[in-house]
Amino acid sequence: MLGGIAALLAAVALGLALWQAPRGVAQEQQPILEYPAYPPTPTIGANPQPAASLQGAPLLSASFDDPAAFASWEVVDFDFVLDESRAVWGVADSRLAQQNTAAAGNPSIQETAALTGAADWADYTAQVSFYDLDNGTAGLVARYTGADPRTASYYRYRILKDAYEATPKQVLERVEGGVATTLVEQKGPGFTPRAWHVLALRVVGNQLTVTLDGAVVAEAEDATPLAAGRAGIYTRAMGGILFDDFSVVAP
Amino acid sequence: MRRILAIVSGLASLTLLATSMPLVPALAQGGASPRLIFQTTLPNARQIKYPDVAAAGNQVYLSANINRADAVVWQKVDSAQSFPAPTTLGAAPGQPDFSATSVATGPDGSAHVMWMNQDQRRIYYRKKPVSGTWGPQRIVYQATRSTEFPVNGMIEIASDGVPWITWRDPDFPAKVTRSSDEGQTWTSPVTIGTSAVINYPMLAAGPGGAMAMAFTAGVRSIDKLQVFAGTWNGSTFVTQNISPAPDDFADPTASYSANGTLLVSFRSEATSGPISGAWLASRTGNDPWQTIRIGGPAEYKGTVNIDTDSGGNLHMQWNANAGAGFRVYYTVRPSSATAFTTPVDAPNDAGVIFNSRIDTSVSDFAYTHVAAELFSGNDSFVRYLLFASTAGAAVGAQPVIEDGEKISERETTVSISFTNIQGTPTQIRWRWGAEPTDAATDSNGWVTFANPLSVPLPASILDNAPCSPEKLFTQVREADNDTGVAQSDDIIIDTGINAAMAVGNPYINSKAREFTPVQAVLGDVGSGGASDGDPGYTRDPIYYLGLQGTNDCSGVKDVSVGRSTTTVNKAIPLSKEAFANVLPYPGAMSPGANQLLVRVSDLAGNVADFTQTLILDQVKPVLSATSPGTLAVTSDAKATILARLAFSGVSVTDDRYPGRGYWGVWVANSRSEVANPTSDSSLIWLPLKAPATGNDFSISNWSLASGLSGALQPGIYHVYVRFLDGAGNPTDGYLTASVTLSQITRPQVSLPMVRR
Questions:
Q1: Do residues A232 and A89 touch, judged by C-beta distance below 8 A?
Q2: Rg of chain B in Å (alpha carbons)
Q3: In the list A176, B206, B579, B742, which could disulfide-bond B210, CB 3.0-4.6 Å?
Q4: What is the predicted pLDDT for the residue at B311?
Q5: What pLDDT sits at residue B19?
Q6: Domain boundaries, chain B
Q7: Which residue is closest to B6 within chain A, CA to CA?
Q8: Which chain B residues are closer than 8 Å to A182 by Cβ?
Q9: Mind telling me how many Å the CA of B375 is from chain A's nearest CA?
Q10: Rounded to whole angstroms, how far apart are CA atoms B357 and B132?
Q11: Does domain B499-616 bear CATH number 2.60.40.10?
C-alpha cells in the first residue's frame, strides 16, 4: 500500500511539473475553452454547372486551377480605403476566394471586384459560379472602364442572400463616373447560401440580361449604353465566398 | 484501512486534476450562468462604423458615428432593453471608417467621448458628469502635417480621472495624449515606439493611475503581424512583443484586474492548427508574461475583447465562425473561480456582426454590454447585445472624496460618498496610501459602513502634504463577510495659505514693484510729508497692501480687509495671485492705534486672517527751539561729493512715535542759502532712516548732489535737515550746515585689468 502511495505522489509531482513547465513557441497549448458542438458544416461539393454550358465564342475562361493565372486580374475597391485595408482575393483549391482585407484579415463591407479582360470587349456574356459561406453578396461587372474605381463606369448586377434583411435583394444598375443608376431591382428573392449558383450577365448593344442558375432574373434596356470594357466578379470584402469557372463569351 | 483508502482516493483525484489541468482545465460551471439577455439594432442610425460602449454604475453609454454626419451617444440603464434617443455630440461627416467615436467612463461615473472629424482632421472630446449634462466640445488634436490623418481613436479614463486618447496615422505608430483640466488642454501627443500600428491601438486603465496600451504591428524580420503591449512609464508606453509564436496575431484589447495584473487578449489569424484561436496574456508587475490559449480553432474576426469588472470578474467576448457561421461568443471567469465558463453564443439572424467592443457593469448581475457593427446586406447598423451572469453578485463601493473635488482645504476629515454600490455593504475599512489589510488600516479595522462617510486625515498628510494626490483605499464587506476589492480615490490636500504679504504705511518706499505710486499723493512734498517712514504708521486713513502667493498648492484666490473678523469687506480677486495697492482704511480711523484685519483665501477654500496695528499720526514732531542739537557736514576726502552728516544732541518731541520721537531725517541740498526751508519749493527732500536710538548719530555717504540739477561745481553746499516721525510728518524746525568743496570728485570703482 505504501508503495502505491509513493507511486501516486510521484505522479502528482510529474503532473505539477507539467503544469509549471515554461510555455513557449515550441510548446503546443490546448485551448482551455471548447465551443458548443454544432452540426457538421456541409461539404463544398463540385460546381455542378461548369462554364462549358455557355454558348458562343470564348473570350476568356478561368477555372482557377492555376493560381498564377489570377495574377493578370485587377482587384479594385469601390470605396476609399487605406492601403492596409484593401480587399484581398486569392486562389486556393482551384477556386477564387474573396479573403477579407489586408488589415489582419478582417472583414469589411467595402465593395470590391476582380476584373479581367480587355477594354474593347463590347458585347459578351460574363458568367461565374459562386458558393457563399457567410459573405452574402455576389455579382458581376461588365463593360468596366476607368482608372479610379470610385469614378469608373460599368454595369453591375448584385444579389444578396435570402437571410439578409435588406431589400432589394437584386439590383441591376448602370454606374457612370461612380454614380449608380438602378436599371432593375427586385425585392426578392435572394440566393441560398452554401450552394453553388451560376450567375451570368449578358450585355449586347443596349440590352442587358441576367440569369441565375439558368433562369432570367433581370432584363433591362439602356438607352445610352456604355460601349465596352472589362468584365469582373463583384462582392464585398467580407470573405466567405468562393468563385469558380469564370468565362466570357461573345455572342 | 478505510482511512488509508480515503487518502489514496484523494491523491488519485488530485493526480488527475494536476495532469489534466494544463491540457484542458476544468470549467467552473456553478455560480456564473452566463446568458444572452437580448440583442437589438439601434434605430435611425445607419452607415455606422466602430461603435463603442462603456458602463459605470448601472448606466451604459454607447457611441457611434451615424448617417455619415454625427457623433452620437446613447445612454440607458444597464438592464434596460431599449435605448432612448441618442444625444448628438458633434459633427462626424464622411466615410465612417475614418470618423471613429469612443466612449469611456471615469471612476466617478462620468462619461467621456472622443470622436474624429475627418474633414477637419481633428479629434474632439466631451464629458458628462455622473449627474450632469454633456459639457462643452473640446478640441483634442488638430492634424497639420500632410502625413497626418488621424484614425482609429480610442479613449480611456485613468483611475485619477484623467482622460487619455490614443489614435494612429496610417503607416505610423500610435500616438497618445491626455488632459488634466477637463479636456480644455491636451498634452503634446507622444508617439509610441517606431512600429506602424495596424487597426486600433487600445488603452486600459489600472489601479493607482496605471495605464497600458496594446496594439498590432508588423515585424519585418519574420514578415508577420504581432501583438505588443506595455505600460506607461511616465513619458511613454514601454511595450514588448507578447505574441506566443512567430506567426500572425492581431487585434488585442487590454484590461487590468483589481490587483494590478495586466490582461491582454488577442487572436491568431490562423483558422486551424496549434496557434489558431483566441489568446490571453497576463503580467503582474514586472514578472514575465504568461500566455494561455483561450479558444480553439475557428475563424476569428476583429478584436478579442476583455474586461475586468469592479467585482473582479473577468469577461471575454469575440466574434468567430466555429462551425455555425459568425457568432458573438461570451465567457466569464468569476472572481471566485479559476476557470472560464463554457462560452455562450448569440444567434445571428439579422446579418453579419463584427468589430465589437464590450464593457461591464455590476448591479444585480454582472452585465456585459456589447456594441458591434451589423451588416444586413446594404448598410451597417449598431447592434447591441446584453449578456448577464450571476458573477455580478459582488460587494463593492466606489469612494468619491469631497464630491470629486481635486483639491481640498486643510480639514481634519474629508467627506467620502460612494457610487456604484454593489451588494449590501455593512462594514468598511480604509487606509491612506495603500490597500487596507488585516494588519494595517487607518480605520482601526472594520467599522460600520455609512454613505456618506467622514474619514479623518492623518497627521502625516496634514503636516507633510507635498501638494500631490493622496490616495484613499476603501474596502467594504457584507454581513456574511463577502468582501469586495479595495477601491480608491485621491485628492490633493492644500494644508494652508502660502503667501507673502506687506501691510502698513502707504508712504513707505518698499512697496511692490507692480505698484506705481501717485506722486502727488504719496511723493515727498515739503509742506506735506515724506515718502518713507515706519511701516506701522500712517498720516492719512489709508494703508498699503501688498500680497503675493508663494507656491500655494491650489493658488491664492482673493483678499479682503476689515477692522475685525466681523467687519470684513467684499473680497478682491487676485490676478496671478498678486495684489498691490493703497487702500482706504475700512471705516473711521482714529488718531492712535487702529486694527486692520486682512483675510486671504485660496482656491481650495483655506482662509487665513492676519491682523496689523496701524497708528494714525497726523501731528508733526517738534524740534526743540532752544536746544535743537547740531549738524556737521564733512566731505569725503576721496569722493568730495559724498558727505558725512553728524548729529549731536538732537532734541525732538512727538505725540505718537516712541523713544527719541523721530524715525528719521528729511534731507535737502542747496547751492544757496535758503531763508525758509520748510516752505521753499525748490528744495528736494529725501527721507533717511536715522540709525541708532540716541540723539547723537551720523549718516555716511550722503550725496551732496541729491536733488540738485545742473553740473556740479566747486563751492559751498548747504544741507538742511528736518526730522520725521513714523508717519512721515516732518518738523517745522530744521538744522543746517554747509561745506565748501574745492573740487568735485566722484566715487570711483577700481576694476581688475584684463589683458588678452
A1: no
A2: 39
A3: B206
A4: 77
A5: 26
A6: 28-392, 396-494, 499-616, 622-741
A7: A5
A8: none
A9: 7
A10: 25
A11: yes
Instruction: Provide the pairing of β-strand A179-186 with B52-56.
Output: unpaired
Same fold, B499-616 and B622-741: yes
| Architecture of the domain spanning B28-392 | 6 Propeller (2.120)
pLDDT, tens digit (0-9, with 9 covering 90-100), for A14-58: 333 332 333 344 457 899 998 888 888 888 888 766 655 678 899
pLDDT in the model for residue B675: 92
Per CB-CB distance under 8 Å, the chain B contacts of A77 are none
Tens digits of per-residue pLDDT, B586-620? Answer: 989 999 999 999 999 988 888 999 999 999 999 99
Q: Would you say B718 and B682 are in contact if contact means Cβ atoms under 8 Å apart? A: no
Percent over 70 (pLDDT), chain B: 92
What's the confidence (pLDDT) of residue B99?
Answer: 95
A107 and chain B in contact, CB less than 8 A: yes
Nearest-Cα distance to chain A for B301, in Å, is 6
Q: Could you report the predicted ipTM of this complex, rounded to two decimals? A: 0.86
Mean pLDDT, to the nearest integer, of A9-17? 34
Q: CB-hemisphere CA count at 13 Å for B340?
A: 24
pLDDT of residue A7 exceeding 50: no
- What is the CATH class of B396-494? mainly beta
Mean pLDDT of chain A: 87
How is domain A61-250 classified at the CATH fold level?
A: Jelly Rolls (2.60.120)
Neighboring chain B residues of A18 at a CB cutoff of 8 Å: 18-19, 22
The answer, for A185 touching chain B at a CB cutoff of 8 Å, is: no
- Please compute the mean of the pLDDT values over residues B134-148 and round it to a whole number: 96
Residue contacts between A and B (CB atoms, under 8 Å) = 159
Find the CB nearest B326 among A21, A35, A134: A134
| Cα torsion A165, A168, A170, A176: sign | negative
Residue B24 has pLDDT above 90, yes or no: no
Q: Is A119 on the interface with B (CB under 8 A)?
A: no
Q: Does A187 touch chain B (CB under 8 A)?
A: no
| Nearest beta carbon to residue B19 from set A18, A33, A35 | A18
Q: Closest to A104 (Cβ–Cβ): which among B15, B225, B376?
A: B225
